[in-house]
Amino acid sequence: MIDNTQQADAYIALNGVKKSYSIGGELISIFSHLDLSIPRGDFVAVMGPSGSGKSTLLNMLAGIDRPDAGALRVGSSRLDQMGEAARSSWRAHHMGIVFQFYNLLPMLTAAENVELPLLLKPLSRKERRIRVDKVLDLVGLAGREKQYPMMMSGGQQQRVGIARAIVSDPGLLLCDEPTGDLDRKSADDILAVLRFLNHELEKTIVMVTHDPQAALFAKRTLHLDKGNFIEEERVA
Ligand SMILES: Nc1ncnc2c1ncn2[C@@H]1O[C@H](COP(=O)(O)OP(=O)(O)OP(=O)(O)O)[C@@H](O)[C@H]1O
């Protein structure tokens, strides 16, 4: 089971989190008492059967959804105690999300897609441009600023998705099946980008995946089963 003795120092700490959904009038419990502790700078792969609650967990970590009970802290923010508006503002500053199907706007160029989260910030056009160029360069897309998603491979589109997720320089990167739509080679390239962001830029990453090979790029793997996590033993 997970060691929660480091909860006070953890960057992400869930304590006794409860979450249920009402499906067809019936209350289905996803988590009845979930504890989890993730230190700053960790790269965690979350695996588990379909329907086990992986996306529910990501949505709570993203501040999109709230626990029914229990404590959920990211950094110094108690997400479980924040209202919708506060969580929305928290999201804009502290975390980025990478989606399985990239979620890019087709009528915008790569640079314009990446710039979107910055439009909410008090930055000049020039400052936005500098940041966009920097992250596109980081993900290996320098020179492709003006390309539209349709002109790019899946792997390149996902690089744009990652650039958009980090352009506001969040500490936390949440990835929902980031390689689920890619062939092995493109998937490994994307995972290498994520590993770089974790190693070199010290982003804390929580990545949901069904792919055991993808999970090997993370520092550790947690298996979600019946509402609780079990950490996978790694052979050195
Ligand atoms: N907004 C919602 N309203 C009602 N039920 C929901 C909602 N979100 C998730 N559920 C239910 O909660 C359970 C867990 O869903 P979740 O998407 O977190 O699982 P998952 O592990 O991510 O699954 P998969 O691997 O198939 O994506 C499922 O039974 C799902 O139907």
From TrEMBL:
InterPro entries: AAA+_ATPase (IPR003593), ABC_transporter-like_ATP-bd (IPR003439), ABC_transporter-like_CS (IPR017871), ABC_transpr_LolD-like (IPR015854), MacB-like_ATP-bd (IPR017911), P-loop_NTPase (IPR027417)
Cell membrane found in the keyword field: yes
Gene Ontology CC terms: membrane protein complex; plasma membrane
SUPFAM superfamilies referenced in this protein's UniProt entry, alphabetically: P-loop containing nucleoside triphosphate hydrolases
Domain spans labelled ABC transporter: 12-235
Name of a matching Pfam family: ABC_tran
Source domain of life: Bacteria
PROSITE patterns reported for this sequence: ABC_TRANSPORTER_1, ABC_TRANSPORTER_2
This protein's record includes keyword rRNA-binding: no
Keywords: ATP-binding, Cell inner membrane, Cell membrane, Membrane, Nucleotide-binding, Translocase, Transport
UniProt GO MF annotations: ATP binding; ATP hydrolysis activity; transmembrane transporter activity
Record family assignment: Belongs to the ABC transporter superfamily. Macrolide exporter (TC 3.A.1.122) family.
PANTHER family linked: ABC TRANSPORTER ATP-BINDING PROTEIN (PTHR24220:SF452), IMPORT ATP-BINDING PROTEIN (PTHR24220)
Stated name of the protein: ABC transporter ATP-binding protein
Record organism: Rhizobium oryziradicis
